[in-house]
Design goal:
The chain has about 325 residues and is α/β, with parallel strands linked by helices. The chain contains 10 helices and 7 strands. The chain is about 45% helix and about 15% strand. A 7-stranded parallel beta sheet has the order 3-2-1-4-5-6-7, sandwiched between helices. Helix 7 (about 210-230) links the parallel strand 5 (about 195-200) and strand 6 (about 240-245). Belongs to the short-chain dehydrogenases/reductases (SDR) family.
Length: about 325
């Protein structure tokens, strides 16, 4: 049990339907709270109407659900393991007309007739350009792009970083996703349906000590995703989703014990992949953050210095990464 489970099981239902608590307290105690009955009902109606309206607004405009889109093609970077593999498996099992191209340097252990592995070194710009040409030649149009691949480099103090290592991190985490979006997304005159998923990280919002190159690359990834999304305006045929997870239960961040797991639980990649595919299929714009604390990381940066200082100390985030 962690804070996310407690929130989802107990807190969230009460926030959305406090009338239940009013009825329980009235029935099991001597206190009469029936005067709160209609105000809480009205509150629930307003809140849940706002939630529904928000979800509808994120899906505004014409959109063909992926399950009904004929001859659809999806490109996933870093699909051989971790979250990328989980996303591919979700697409394969749930979207039966979708062809998937996985770009990675290592073939996935998972195979399927609709999964096409292409050897691509995302740290090499010429390899990226080559595979883009191949995809356009073999598949024509791409309808879904999942920029998932990422590398973290070594956990090192900032002054010990090597230029070549930092360049490699930025090439894989920032420049290759930018190139893929530029060359695979439809031009303004095209009406092709296109959905772009950018897998960033909470470390791009709030970076711990010894994670500077990875955090900086994810911050850059978030910035260009946001700028491009705003350039799209209200276009219905091109939609984007920014994903900012906390620590995933994958090999990339293995080797140390995450601090305060009650408040910052490790994210299950299969569950996150399921949510991503749900939003992609329906054409839902916006952001997806997990676990619970990831939704509030931006607020931390707006607090006074003293509050930020003690919040970071209490979290243990700046002392958890080892020096490699």
């Amino acid at each position: 049990m962690n804070i996310d489970a407690i929130f989802n099981i107990f807190v969230l239902p009460l926030l959305r339907f406090p009338v239940v608590m009013v009825l329980i307290i009235t029935s099991v105690t001597k206190h009469d709270f029936r005067g709160w009955l209609w105000p809480t009902v009205a509150y629930s109606l307003l809140l849940n109407t706002a939630v529904v309206a928000n979800n509808k607004f994120k899906r505004r405009g014409p959109w063909v659900n992926l399950r009904k889109l004929e001859n659809a093609t999806c490109v996933v970077t870093g699909g051989s393991s971790g979250l990328g593999l989980a996303i591919i498996q979700q697409f394969i099992s749930r979207i039966h007309n979708l062809k998937i191209v996985s770009l990675d340097v290592v073939p996935p252990k998972f195979t399927h007739p609709r999964l096409d592995f292409r050897d691509c070194d995302l740290s090499d710009p010429s390899s990226v350009d080559r595979v883009i040409k191949e995809i356009k030649k073999d598949y024509g149009e791409v309808h879904v792009l999942v920029n998932n691949a990422g590398i973290r480099g070594k956990y090192q103090n900032f002054c010990e970083l090597q230029k070549k290592d930092v360049n490699c991190v930025f090439q894989v985490n920032v420049f290759s996703p930018m190139r893929l979006i530029q060359l695979l997304s439809p031009k303004k005159a095209e009406k092709r349906q296109f959905y772009a998923i950018t897998i960033a990280s909470t470390l791009g919002i709030c970076t711990p000590a010894r994670g500077s190159s990875y955090g900086a690359s994810k911050a850059a990834l978030i910035s260009f995703h946001e700028a491009w999304t705003q350039e799209l305006g209200d276009a219905s045929n091109v939609r984007t989703l920014l994903v900012t997870p906390g620590q995933l239960d994958t090999a990339m961040f293995s080797g140390f014990e995450p601090p305060k797991q009650f408040f910052a639980p490790v994210v299950n990649p299969r569950e996150l992949a399921r949510q991503i595919v749900d939003k992609c299929s329906a054409g839902e714009r916006g952001e997806l953050s997990a676990p619970l604390y990831a939704n509030f990381m931006g607020i931390l940066r707006t607090l006074p210095y003293t509050a930020i200082y003690f919040a970071r100390k209490a979290s243990g985030m700046d002392s958890c990464l080892p020096v490699e």
